[in-house]
Amino acid sequence: MTDLYGAALAAEDTTMATSGGTFTRDTLAPTAPAGEAYAVGGILPGRKVAEVAHYGELAAAILNMRADMADRAPGGYIGTWIDDGTVYVDAVVILPDLASAGILARTLGERAVFNFVTGESIAAEDAYPCRACIAAAPSGR
């Protein structure tokens, strides 16, 4: 077992225990940015791993996504999540503000943006135009 395969298995464990995770592309270490940060997927075609039946299936999908990203999204991250028993693996970018994340999500046709602070997904249409930003803007704009 290589260190990278062990890291992929650890990423699988994290995903299954917490219903998702975001990992660096290079080392597959979990990442949780400090402060306001949002993840947007869809940078490359994602992978759907229907109900993980065998240990290592998700790890293999994570390693395949890492390989796909090598030339096409080298600075990105790998995001995983579980929705109704189906596991997804996607190439993601992390952005510092909701408006930028919302614009990118809508441009890529993504349905949601992940908020690292709250741990919740925000529907792309609610992220941009950034309703919270509009509400917080000084009147007269």
Write up what this structure looks like:
With 141 residues, the protein is of the alpha+beta class. It is 38% helix and 26% strand. It has helices at residues 3-18, 57-72, 98-108, 124-127, 131-136; strands spanning 20-24, 38-40, 47-49, 77-83, 86-95, 112-115, 120-123. Strands 1, 2, 3, 4, 5, 6 and 7 form a 7-stranded antiparallel β-sheet that branches. Helix 1 (3-18) crosses helix 2. The radius of gyration is 16 Å and the shape is globular. The termini are far apart.
In short:
The chain is α+β, with helices and mostly antiparallel strands. The protein has helices at 3-18, 57-72, 98-108, 124-127, 131-136; strands spanning 20-24, 38-40, 47-49, 77-83, 86-95, 112-115, 120-123.
* H/E element order: HEEEHEEHEEHH
> What's the number of extended β-strand segments?
7
Shape: globular
Helix content: 25-40%
Query: Structural class from helices and strands?
Result: alpha+beta
Q: Write down the Rg.
A: 16 Å
How much β-strand is present in the residues? 25-35%
* Oligomerization status of the protein chains: single chain
Taking the alpha carbons of the first and last residues, their distance comes to 58 Å
Q: Which sheet architecture does the biggest sheet show?
A: 7 strands, antiparallel
- Average of the residue pLDDT scores: 87
How many DSSP helices?
5
Low-confidence stretches: none
